[in-house]
Specification:
The chain is an alpha+beta fold and 162 residues long. The chain has one domain: Aminopeptidase. 32% of the residues lie in helices and 35% in strands. The protein is built from 5 helices and 7 strands, in the order E-H-H-H-E-E-E-H-E-H-E-E. The protein has a 7-stranded mixed beta sheet with strand order 1-2-3-4-5-7-6, sandwiched between helices. It is globular. The relative contact order is 0.16.
Length: 162
């Protein structure tokens, strides 16, 4: 059974465990590095909830009660639409529907907030993630920029109407 839970500060340790695994196993998929995050103090992890409040969504997907994946989406000043900042599904849980459920719940959140479009960036070469986003109606904007954590790689900007 798949369950998507929109998190609160009380969930920060589950969030941290998933995020560290994501950064360790997919180091070129994110703008931050495992080395930075692993030694971060509790405040670093709490900031997701303390600084963003209702302007952000942080959800954890559970499969049969086990944390299986996560997604973060937030309103950011640089864009008129919310931005999916990060997504991860544990490798052993892939192919179960968790990724799709996380994306669908995030789209629902953005619609409920009154947005008409949503955006994300995907690292070039991450075809699994790119195909997931294409299946969910995202398309390339034809815009690219260096990945913050690995400037030798580029992210491709994608968006979809809601």
């Amino acid at each position: 059974m798949i369950e998507i839970r929109r998190t609160t500060l009380d969930d920060w340790q589950s969030w941290k465990a998933l995020r560290l695994n994501a950064l360790r196993l997919a180091p070129t998929a994110y703008g931050e590095t495992y080395a930075n995050a692993v030694d971060a103090d509790d405040h670093y992890w709490h900031r997701w909830w303390l600084e963003r409040g209702d302007d952000a969504l942080r959800s954890i997907g559970y499969l049969d009660g086990v944390p299986a994946g996560q997604i973060a989406c937030a309103e950011v000043p640089e864009f008129p639409e919310p931005l999916i900042l990060a997504m991860w599904v544990e490798e052993s849980m892939r192919g179960t529907g968790i990724a799709g459920a996380l994306v669908d719940d995030t789209l629902e959140w953005a619609r409920a907030k009154g947005f008409t479009r949503i955006r994300l960036g995907v690292t070039e070469g991450n075809e699994t993630a790119r195909k997931l986003y294409l299946r969910h109606g995202f398309s390339s904007l034809g815009e690219f920029e260096p990945l913050h954590s690995h400037p030798d790689l580029r992210i491709e900007w994608m968006a979809r109407d809601l």
